[in-house]
Specification:
- By secondary structure, this protein is an alpha+beta fold.
- It has a single domain, classed as Aminopeptidase (3-Layer(aba) Sandwich), CATH 3.40.630.30.
- Helix content is 32%, strand content 32%.
- It has helices at residues 13-30, 36-45, 90-99, 115-121, and strands spanning 4-7, 52-57, 60-69, 74-81, 105-110, 125-129, 133-138.
- The chain has a 7-stranded mixed β-sheet with strand order 1-2-3-4-5-7-6.
- Helix 1 crosses helix 2.
- The protein is globular.
- Residues 1-142 form the N-acetyltransferase domain.
Length: 142
């Protein structure tokens, strides 16, 4: 399934926060770390509409992603999909789209999240482990 991309505006914050909470809640609850207030603060601290895109399928926003351009790499801050949209190839499509830029990609995934298996399947390697997150990096083969 190929989504379309739509721009993000400042007015989209609450809808995006709700989607982020819906996507992350099961993993955060497993770790005993679910807090809507913390989710709000974290998203607000990284809310840069110019780096963000909505993922739209059949007219419905089913997710979003955020890619920060850095000097020598891209940083994937968010890739969230509504649970009903997961497992349909949308995340893989996003990763392929980002990889097509040919620059290294870094990201962090929450421990005990299904996202870890997803990123490993897509060629990301673990570069560091922290208390709650695992850091990954992908580089194109030369």
């Amino acid at each position: 399934m190929i989504p379309t991309l739509a721009p993000v505006a400042g007015a989209d914050f609450e809808e995006m926060l709700a989607l982020r909470i819906e996507a992350l809640r099961p993993s955060l609850e497993r770790l005993g770390r679910f807090s809507p207030d913390v989710a709000r603060v974290r998203l607000r601290s990284q809310f840069r509409p110019e780096w963000m895109k909505h993922l739209v399928v059949e007219g419905e926003r089913v997710g979003y992603f955020t890619v920060e351009p850095r000097e020598d790499e891209l940083r994937l801050h968010h890739l969230y999909l509504k649970p009903a949209a997961q497992g349909r190839g949308i995340g893989a499509w996003v990763i392929d789209r980002i990889k097509s830029q040919g620059r290294p990609i870094t990201l962090a995934a929450l421990r005990e999240s299904r996202a870890n298996d997803f990123y490993r399947r897509h060629g990301f390697r673990v570069v560091a482990e922290q208390e709650f997150d695992i850091e990954y990096r992908w580089e194109a083969l030369a």
